[in-house]
Design brief:
globular
Length: 194
């Protein structure tokens, strides 16, 4: 595939995902994985999960960060620009059009019911993406961190304890770095004993 065709294909793929995904970046994770890992095989599953971790921990929406990464990896700077535009334009156009007559739009009974249905679908898409990511976890440490954060986050939510999700991310990063440092030290000590 020539580079112009690849860039156009990137734009169309991201535009389609941006157009038909409601609920933000988390709802897009499953669609991004299906489109670019399973269907087109432009990135590997490992790269995808690394990308999600980096996109989640860097400033900016996860969908835009992911589009920029995939676009850059497959077609360079021009690919990253068009992939980012592809993911952003549908939402921008739709939200602009809705804002022109927002109150009238929400007062339509069918629209209100449609939004209730969309909310249920978004919850399902987010859960599906989460379960797929959990199934791919490897190692006791990754599983333990996931369980601790999930249980803690759930308990904090149930008991209305105000604890920012940013702290969970920072604690996970510090714990991961500590685990990495300790495991590296143990490996080097074992290597020195031989």
């Amino acid at each position: 595939m020539t580079k112009p065709k690849l860039i156009l294909n990137l734009f169309i793929s991201f535009f389609k995902i941006g157009l038909f995904t409601f609920g933000g970046g988390y709802a897009m994770i499953a669609m991004l994985e299906h489109e670019f890992v399973e269907k087109k095989k432009w990135i590997s599953g490992g790269e995808f999960y690394d990308m999600i971790a980096i996109a989640e921990s860097t400033p900016g929406p996860i969908a835009i960060n992911s589009a920029t990464f995939i676009g850059y990896k497959t077609a360079g700077v021009s690919g990253s620009i068009l992939a980012t535009l592809g993911i952003v334009l549908p939402s921008l156009i739709i939200i602009y059009l809705i804002s022109l007559f927002f109150n009238e739009f929400l007062s339509i009974t069918l629209v209100a019911y449609a939004f209730k249905g969309i909310q249920a679908c978004v919850a399902f898409l987010i859960l599906r993406a989460g379960f797929k990511m959990v199934k791919k976890l490897k190692g006791v440490f990754s599983i333990a961190i996931t369980l601790v954060v999930t249980v803690t986050f759930t308990l904090f939510s149930l008991f209305a304890i105000d604890f920012s999700s940013i702290y969970f991310i920072l604690l996970g990063a510090v714990t991961g770095l500590a685990f990495f440092g300790i495991s590296k030290a143990v490996k080097s000590k074992k290597g020195g004993e031989k």
